[in-house]
Every structure is written in structure tokens, then in C-alpha cells.
Amino acid sequence: MGRRSVTGESSSRRRTRRLGRPFFDRPTVTVARALLGSELRVRDADGVRRARIVETEAYVANDPASHAYRGPTPRNRSMFEAPGTLYVYRIHQVDCANLVTRRGEAVLLRSGEPLSPQEGNPSGPGRLCRYLGLGLADDGANARRSRRVGVWSRARRPGRIVVGPRVGLSRARARLLRFAIDGDPWVSAPRLRSGSVRRDLIPPRRRTSAV
DNA sequence: CTTCAGATTATCT
DNA sequence: GATAATCTGAAGT
Questions:
Q1: Does residue A76 reach within 7 angstroms of strand C, measured from its CB?
Q2: Which of A32, A186, A198, A207 could form a cystine bridge with A58, CB 3.0-4.6 A?
Q3: What's the Å distance between residue A102 CA and nucleotide B6 C1'?
Q4: Top-confidence residue, A198 or A144
Q5: Is the predicted pLDDT of residue A135 greater than 70, yes or no?
Q6: Nearest nucleotide by C1' from A72 CA?
Q7: Å between CA of A167 and C1' of C1
């Protein structure tokens, strides 16, 4: 905790913009990859918290691991709203945030690099929300329009993207729908390593311990 | 109404 | 690596 990585600035700067419908209204895997390197901003009375997204997971149609798998319920209602909607849920006393892509599909924001002056650890979906001040109250807000929450395009290119199995699931373990910036120190455990997973290969089920 | 597993994390061996 | 914490949503009776 309290670490801040040095992120070679200035060299390949880009103009950033708030991401809108064309960004979110695409296949979920596309959005999950495109979100890497983008910036999440949450405004409150004290100012703006910012984090650079370094790890995501895709939850797609007909996905047994998705909260939307059995159709709309009171909890997952936001997953069936417009692209860019925040779906925030609570598990084991922590809140986790998703961005909706297409109907019933979303991208879980798994970890980020802290960009605000405030120290903190946004590595892990619960910690990311806590660092940014995101919570259940934000469920249903739309990041395309919200004054409080927004996603901003990459200021610089991310490095290589690595792919692997999603974390913490008991079902659909074989699907490679977790994406991260290779080597980024803020990627959550278990760490993905380049070359450790073949994108086109479905690994056999393991009895214990993932990755 | 009751049961139960869970898109996590802190802490221990 | 393994487990407890701690509680809610959703499915079952």
C-alpha cells in the first residue's frame, strides 16, 4: 500500500475524451480489452478520484458465471440497461463495479493504477471501488452522462494485453475472459503472465488452485 | 421462511 | 496456499 508506480508519461501523449455510446455498444470482449489503459473518474464533494484501468473481465451472453445468466432480477437489473450503465453489486461486504456493454452483458473492472494524489490500493475489484468511492449508490448510473462517474479514453497506449481465466468463479472456469496489461504492478492476484496462457487453447479443468 | 453459495479480501500457516 | 469473516440475493420448501 502507498505504492505508486512510475508511468512513463509525456512520450506518447494522446488527447483524451469521455467515452460514449460507440465505445460501449460493441462486443463485450472488445470493450473489456479497450478499457485497459482508460481512466475512470469519480467526483465527490472533495474532488475527483482517478484510476487507470489495468485489469478487466468480460461477462457475456449465455455465460453461466454471469449474474445475468438467469435473466433479470432485482439485483442485476442494471445489466439490462443501456450501454455505459454501471452495474454495482456487493459481495462479502465489498462492492464491485461493472460497465454494461450490450444487453445483459458487462465488463467487471478488476483493478487499476491510482492516479489521484491520495494513496490507496485499487488492486482488486473491491479495492478499486473503495479507492474511487464507488458503491451501491452508483448502481444504475450511466457513465456516458453521469456528472459523478465517467470513463476517459487512453492517454497513452497500454503495453501487451494478457488473457486468462476469470477469478473467483466456480463455473465456466475454462473461459479466457480476463484481460490485463502485461506486467503492470497493479494487476490483482493471481497474476497473469505473458505466454502463460494460450489464447486459442482451452485448458483442462483443475481440481484445486487456479492458474 | 429457510437454505446456501458467492464476479472478495485480510490474515494465518 | 488455506480459511474465516459476514451477509445478501435468489432459489427452494
A1: yes
A2: A32
A3: 24
A4: A144
A5: yes
A6: C10
A7: 16
CATH of domain A21-181: 3.10.300.10
Query: Residue A209: which pLDDT band, with cuts at 50, 70 and 90?
Result: very low
Strand C bases near protein CB (under 7 Å) are 1-2, 5-11
Give the Å distances, CA to CA, from A48 to A36, A74, A89, A150, A156. Answer: 20, 30, 22, 11, 20
Count the residues in chain A. 211
**Distance (Å, rounded) from C-alpha A114 to C-alpha A121?**
7
Phi, psi of A132, deg, nearest 5: -85, -15
| Predicted pLDDT of residue A190 | 85
Domain ranges of chain A: 21-181
SS3 A170: coil
- Distance (Å, rounded) from C-alpha A179 to C-alpha A56? 5
Q: Which residues pair with A85 in a beta bridge?
A: A142
Quote the CA–CA distance of A179 and A163 in Å, as a whole number: 5
Q: How far is the CA of A20 from the C1' of B10 (A)?
A: 37
User: What is this structure's pTM?
Assistant: 0.88
User: Which nucleotide is the nearest neighbour of A168, by CA and C1'?
Assistant: B7
Q: What angle do CA A69, A165, A85 make, to 5 degrees?
A: 45
Looking up cell 478499486 gives: A128
- Residue-wise pLDDT for A3-39, tens only, equals 444 454 445 678 999 999 999 999 999 999 999 999 9
